Structure formats: C-alpha cells, structure tokens
Protein 1
Amino acid sequence: MSNQNDVKFADFPLSETIHQSLDQAGFERPLPIQAACIPPALEGKDVIGLAQTGTGKTAAFAIPIIQRLANKMELGALVLAPTRELAAQITAAFNELGKSSGLRVATIVGGVPMEQDFAALRSWPNVLVATPGRLNDHIENGRLLLDEIEVLVVDEADRMHDMGFIPQIHRIIAALPRKRQTMMFTATMADDVERIARKNMRDPVRIQIGITAPAHRAKQEIFELAEDAKRPLLLKLLRKSTGRVLVFARTKRGVDSLTRIVNARRLKAAKIHGDLEQGHRDESLANFRSGHCPILIATDIAARGLDVSGIEHVINYDFPHNAEDYVHRIGRTARVEASGLATSFATPLDRRFVNDVRKLIGDKLPKPTRLESYSVASTKVTPEKKPKGRYRSGRRSGSQRRAATKSG
Ligand code: ADP
C-alpha cells in the first residue's frame, strides 16, 4: 500500500490521448482508489470498490472504460447512479477525460422530458450514465437494447439500496449480457449489496479505501443544544462565514423552511431536495457553484455525491440518524485536498446518533460542547434589533414549550 503514493498514470497502459486529457484535467497522479482499481479494471476483472464519495472513484472506473471503448461504435458501458446530480457529474467526468478519445456519453435520468432521452439515445453513445427508474422505463418499453454492454458500473450501491432501487437494479442486470465486466462502488457493504455482488460478479477484486478518510481532513465540532436554539445559532454561524456553506436538514420541509428563514435575513441561500423540479435543482447548484448563493441547504439524498469545490463549512443543522451519512456529509468539505470545518447541532434526543457516529469513526469525533439556553441568548443573534419576543433571551415561547412537551 505504501508505494501507492509513487504510482504514476504513466505506469498504466493507457492511450496517449487519455494521458493528454489527464494532463489537461490537472490530474498529476492517481489517487489511492485509482491506483488500486485501474490495473485490475484494465485487465477486465470485476471490481468492488469500498470508498466514500470524493475519493476519486469516478475516474477510477471511467479511465479503464475510456481505454476499452474509445473508437468503438456500440453502446458498450452502462453506469448506474442513484441521483440525477451524480449522473450529471459522472457524465461530465467522462466528457472531460474521454472526449478527445472519441468517447460519446449520454445521460438518462428521471425528471426531464422524454424527448431529451430520445435525442440522447440517437447520439450513438458508447457510454450511458443513468438513474435506475428512467432506464427501466426505456428497457421495459423496448426502446433500449443493452445487448452490447461490455461493462456495467453500479456507483454508490449502498445509497441505491437506501433509496429502494435494488429491485430495479436486478431488472436492469437481467437485460444485460451475462458475459461482461462489472464494477461496483459502495461506502458500506449492506447485505443486499453483498447479495448483488455474489449473484452478479465473477471473482471480484475487492478494494477498500479508508472509510473515514474525509473525517481525517475536516475539523469537526459538535454543539449540544435545545431544538429551539438551533435556528439562532445557525443564523449566527452563517453571518460569520465568508466562504461556501452547505447546511443539512433532515426533511424536505425542513429545507424549505430554513431556506425561507435564511433568505428573509438577506443571506443568500439556495436549496436542493428530492421534490424540486430538475430545473430548480440545476439552478440551485449553479448558483451555489458560481458563489451567487454562498449557502446551500439540502437533504442528504440530494446532496449525496455533490462535487462542488471550495465548500469551507458543512453544518449539520439536524444531526444525521445514520452514522454513515455523517461521514458523507462532512466529506463534502474535505474533498481530495481541501480541508474545512464541519459543525453539527445535536439535541439531547440525538445523543444516541452521536454515539453511533463515535462507534464508526472513533475519537476523531470531538466531545459535544453543551450550549445551555442562556449561551444562545448571549450569542446575540439579533440583527433585527428588537425581535419582539421572538428570541426572548433564549427562553422558549409558548408554542415551542408546547412542541417540546409533545415530542417529549
Ligand atoms: P467520487 O467519484 O469518489 O465522488 P470524484 O471522482 O468526483 O470522486 O473526484 C473528486 C474530485 O477529485 C473531482 O473534482 C475530481 O476532478 C478530482 N480528482 C479525481 N482524480 C484526481 C486526481 N488523480 N488528481 C487530482 N484530482 C482528481
């Protein structure tokens, strides 16, 4: 493993055009997952990569596919991704690294007009990047023949599982030739994911890239506080921040209401969650990427795999109920070489979830700092000088007290 640092792209039998594209992309050396994955993938072996997003796995499977399919006419590779955003990012990576090798990539995702798919399919792609639902529509209606597929990639298999896509994936695999190369990437090996591997892969090479890698790089802090103290603290942190901030809320409604509140304070926030139209999601991402909206408020599923560089601060407004989501979320601020800050809010009811994360990543998780209600008042989160009882020195309002009693 230690000499993986010395591996160079020049060590791999890749075409000159791929080397040029790697140079142009500024990829000087392979990242660990690439160093481990590219050689067996080039030999046509099946590969299981256990790695988080942000570790460079897209190029780890894209480079061998480009090498194999460049200048072929047939649709030879299918890449399945759980979300539209991830599919778009994978397509962009294929284009960046494969265009000069003559690779043609098409994307098939839900939430866009069918005509767009027909145009994509007419472009004679040799790589198709798709989300499972829409792809199945086309397969079932006989609009898409996948009998020339040589390589299947299932990206973020664990998230596919969480999103209920496993039956769809089985159906898609049934439409593929049996003789093919299969690569699967996942952050964790859930039973269902293991089952897909056992049933559909031949003697796969297993590659594991440290599960907590992102956690090493981001500085982390946790505040334990009451539910009603979270909003004032969030506004305070957002006012202080200078760079891009990604805020996670648990529910779509939570994202909607936080976005309204933040924008009402003249802090520019965009939002992203699964119920928004694709156009709205694209616009939010574009505004966040360009810095027009330096704050993005998101649910886990929508934010999964987002590749936005320069996120300085991730705020877990709602503490994740799933320990792996914690690692994914804070990984957003420490992609590849950058490092950042991850702040988490946890109410006393979240203690067991904090413990779950500690079990997963150990002492890298700091001890929570308790913020009593008076310390929230002392944070002076009141630009609107007289909040007319809204924050009442950190004491709860009647409705908040009622809500607390209900949930307790
Ligand atoms: P993942 O697929 O694991 O989420 P990506 O493949 O999107 O990760 O890689 C994350 C970021 O790292 C992207 O911005 C990508 O362009 C960049 N990257 C990937 N490989 C390299 C490399 N060898 N050198 C430098 N940057 C890289």
Protein 2
Amino acid sequence: MANIIIIGTQWGDEGKGKIVDLYSHEADVIVRFQGGNNAGHTLVTNNEKTILHLIPSGILHDHKTCILGSGMVINPEVLIEEIERLAERNLPHPNTTLHISDSAHLIMPYHVRIDNAREAKMRSGKIGTTGRGIGPAYEDKVSRTGIRICDLLNEEIFNQKLKNNIEEKNHLLTNYFGEEPVDFDEISNKYSVWADRLRPYCGNTSILIERSVKAGKHILFEGAQGTHLDIDHGTYPFVTSSSTVAGNACSGAGVGPTQISAVIGICKAYTTRVGSGPFVTELSDETGQKLQEKGKEFGSTTGRKRRCGWLDMVMVRQSVRLSGITGIALTKIDVLTGLDKIKICTGYRIGKGKDREEIVDYVPSDIKVIGQCKPVYEELPGWSEDISTARSIDELPQAARRFIERIEEITDTKVLLVSVGPGRNETVVIRNPFRLIK
Ligand code: IMP
C-alpha cells in the first residue's frame, strides 16, 4: 500500500490537477480533504478540457473511489452541477464511485453573500477571495454554528439550524453590510431538493478510508490551494480559510498520520499568485507578462489574471519543511523555454541600507516584513529547444537538467516528475512514488 499526500508548495495553481490525474492511474482511492469550490483543476484528456472544482480528478478514471472528505466545505449546487456535467459525458465509469463525508460543512447562500459584501467593504485591504463563501463557511464551522451534510439529510434539523443562522446572518447582511436579507423558504426549498439528490453519496468516509487502508489499497490525498495560502502558515491574512499543509490531510480525511507513506509537493517552475498579498519575486516587466501569457495564467475558478514571478525557492523550501515533502513534481518547465537566463530566488534581503541588511532563508511571518523583502537571485542558463516531446530526463537540454538539479539541491528533496506540457503524456517520469513504496 502507498498512501500519498499531494499538496501545492506555492500559492496554489501549481498544476496539481494534471499530477493528481496522472497519479490517480496508480491510486485506488482519491480523497479531497480541505477547501471547496475555490479550487479548480484543469485537466486535458484526449484534447478535451475538464475543470473540476470539488470532485477529485480520479472521477475521470475507472475503478476508483473518489471521496470528498470532512475537512471540506461543500456548495451542494456546485457539486450537483459538476455531477451532472460529468453524467453528460457518461462519467463516472461503472466501477468508479463518489462519496461525500456526512461531516463536511455546507456552503450556504449567505456565506457567498457575506464573502462578497466583506470584500467590497474592505476596498484596498481586500483579500481578493474567490467569492465562493469559503471563509464565512469555515467561520461558522469554527464557531460551531455551521450546517453539515448530515444536517442536510435531516429536514427538521436542517430547517432549525437554517432558521437560527438566518437570524444572525440577515442582521449582519442588512445592518452592517447594507445588503438585502436572504429568504428562509427559498433556501430551505432548494436545499431540500439538493439533499435528495446528494443523499445516495453521503456517509462516513473515514470508515471507507480505514477499510481501504486495511485492504492494502493505494490512497491519494489531493490537496487544494497551496502551502502559502495555509491559514496558519501562509501569508496571513492573504490566505484561504483552511489548512493546506500535508498534516491536514489526516485531519480533513479522518485518517491517522501513521498511515501516510509519502508527501509529494507540486512546484511550478515559476511563481504565481491570484488575489492580493506580498509576492517577493513578482515581475511587473515583460518577462512577467511572457510567463503569464505563455503559461496561460488565468484562474480556472475566477478567470482572473495570475500575477507572475521567478521561482521562489525560499517559499518552496519552507513548504518542504512544513509538510515533510518527500518528493517534488515540477510543473510547467516548458513555459521557461526561450528565456536567455532563468532566475531562482534563494534568499530574502531584509532591512534598509547595506549595514543593516540581513539575508534570511525563510518566509517571515509578518506580511509587512515580507513586503519589504528583496529577492536574492541565482541566475541559471536558459534553453531554447522545444522540450514538450521529452519523455526521459536525458532528452532534456543540459540547462533544464541543471535547473532541476538545483531545485533538488536547495530543497534536499528529489524531483520525481517533470511536466513539459499540459497533456497527460507530456511528462518526464523520473521516479514513480507508488512503485517506490511497498
Ligand atoms: P478564498 O479561498 O476564496 O477565501 O480566497 C482567499 C485567497 O486564496 C485569495 O487570494 C484567493 O485568490 C486564493 N485562492 C483560493 N483558492 C485558490 C486556488 O485554488 N488557487 C489559487 N489561489 C486560490
């Protein structure tokens, strides 16, 4: 058995979708453990593009068990839409099943409204959320007023909880945000229909995972967002509202840490960020624009242009530490093709004036300090050859191999796979993590 956690090492959008899809071939069970439809995985199979926000990408394969774990926040409308869009393509395959944890929390219409109203009110200090109600849903979870999937399945309890919540949320919406209130009957009726639609998928998914572990199945825990959007360890407050580090795979899926065999960190060959917050290696020049255009750096959830910059190894190394990453999957290296020189950031210069300067190799906690950090760059040679057809490490130009080696040296972690294009086959597999673990 190999139970592997996959997480992003940057600010999300590292190309996890493709990697999870690839590893899903080897896995029997694929589990999402945090976040909600703020995530968006774009998958390209047989030239057909699929964007999934909630359902694990394993759903595209046969003989898979796909799980939405208890650490998630689920918008039932979005989930049903996703199920229906897959059904139009005759998916899932007959032997693939979908399961929803009955302890996952629901995203309610007032969460979405509050998320957007709060962002509008904040103006310059806004987080730049995806506007999907993620933060307010997690707020209710932590304040113990949230409504869970198990509540959705019991109409009486659901309506009681909805009534209590609406009283408070409408007060906030109307009196504080100056918005229209939400309507109890409208929400109750809609959610009652959705409850019937989702009922067959819901249950205790922790037990399902335990059975799979005992049966010696391969389990893949699919993280959403990235380490530096983590609520505890990210660039707070410009983060998401869940924990995105590997440790939360256990909590959010309902499995013990002793069952985990490996942690794979997805690292894009450069850095991107959507939304606000400090970004030490951000490029506001032609190179940044090139990366944005060539890498098609638009958010798959909101369509927003992603901010782009050089690969920040200070961030990646920190992610290796925070999640105990055992192997790296390097993505979108083909986007760097054609650049004369490639820069990687190995440290942050803090302080004003030469005498008071300090170089650190970690991301400071205070975003004001991060905002003042200047990148310390190492320059590597670029390459101009088309690498999208490379299928083994030897087929990559020397400069690309050096780039990969440097990432290994700085992180003291092996690169397992290099993605050289969006397609499933556009991949150089160096080591297969499922075959490394017995
Ligand atoms: P929220 O998760 O919608 O509350 O957004 C909080 C921050 O996380 C914003 O900066 C978003 O742009 C960012 N974010 C949330 N989900 C993703 C993702 O899947 N990829 C990249 N950024 C994300």
